[in-house]
Amino acid sequence: MSHVKAGGSSKNIHNNAGRRLGVKRFGGQSVRTGEVLVRQTGSSKIAGPGTFISRDYTIHAAVDGVVQFSKVRKGHFTGKTVPRTQVSVQ
């Protein structure tokens, strides 16, 4: 027989803090250069004119202006198109 005692279960180990993702500046709001517009995992929203995307997929304002959200269809390598929300600053 095994000589290792039962380990039991640990129930309280998954209590980490939330990642605070989501839209930070909404459509129609004025923004300054460098402000965070959207924090996200993966590119569910894509960067449009007047914005840039950082390596953790956060979308920032590249210019001063007003935030706009629009629906676009983005093409994949296979030819399939999928709907995406495009964030732009004008």
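The record above closes out task 2.4. Task 2.5 opens with a second protein, given below.
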Amino acid sequence: MTQPFFELLHTDPSGARRGRFHTAHGTVQTPIFMPVGTAASVKTLTSADLQEIQAQIILGNTYHLYLRPGHRLIAQLGGLHRFMHWPGPILTDSGGYQVFSLGAMRRIREEGVTFRSHLDGSAHLLSPELAIQIQEDLGSDIMMQLDECPPYPAKRDYLAKSLQLSVRWGARCLAARRPDRQQALFGIVQGGMEADLRQESAAALIELGFDGYALGGLSVGEPKEKMAEVLSYAPALLPKEQPRYLMGVGKPEDLVEAVAAGMDMFDCVLPTRNARNGQLLTRWGARNIKQARFREDARAVDAHCLCHCCQHYSRAYLHHLFRNKEIAVLRLMTLHNLHYYLDLMEGMRQAIATDRFAAFRADFYQQRLSGDED
């Protein structure tokens, strides 16, 4: 198996980075967006669909797969790659964010997080050691440490104690990792919107020595300007020679700004969830296919888009399918939205490689201001 490692290939004058992350299941070109496959499936799509749109890496969810069908069963069946017939790299989160989302149904203590399943109310303890065991059994290429994701807003004292707990859990995750496994393990920087706490968290995790580092605790309800403030300094706290992952952030403009800030990896449910709600994401902005103006519109969603949806179907057809609750439309719109995201990342990679990222960024916003031909 390939020992995971990261190559920083080029840095644009803006600070945007072009790199490669090598894993046992292939090489990931960065910056990259990772489609979210919560329960071993990117909703409405098959693994063949994901390969068709040239997805390089996908994300699986530790919490959901632990509860159902269970990590031991997936290991017995050959691991997550074989289980879902996906040949490329997989990143698994630790389950910390999902447990955070349970609110009153969970309790945080030094040992780990006790919580009740959203499926049947059964009681569980998710410890750092169990989080690693689950991810190793799943066989993902990139594992995440168990951390506490504090809410926004949160008091400074709480944030300080929380990040220290996450650092201790990070150390336990590293100690629990099997030495014979070729899986990368990322640490997660917390600290809320406090710059000095973010610095404290990053320094402590770097001292522990992870294979990559993520920024957590963003896109949890904070104003956009707060996220921009954190991104103005936090990437520089992380090692240049290792991958930088911004967790759960994913509007197109957020991706462009985060790449400009020096981040490399991203995930978000937005393109898949919004597709299921009738929203198409395009270079001109979002389009709601339910609107009556699309009823007789014979054009493709985007005449320049090479996805299966845009190459073969009209806006009028998608409108018809959605209004009639035909399941096929969910797949077609998800294909388009993810293709748009992956094409956006490819455009950024090319721009960085040729020192044109500033021009790319300006063109991105100019297109969104101009609107399309309708």
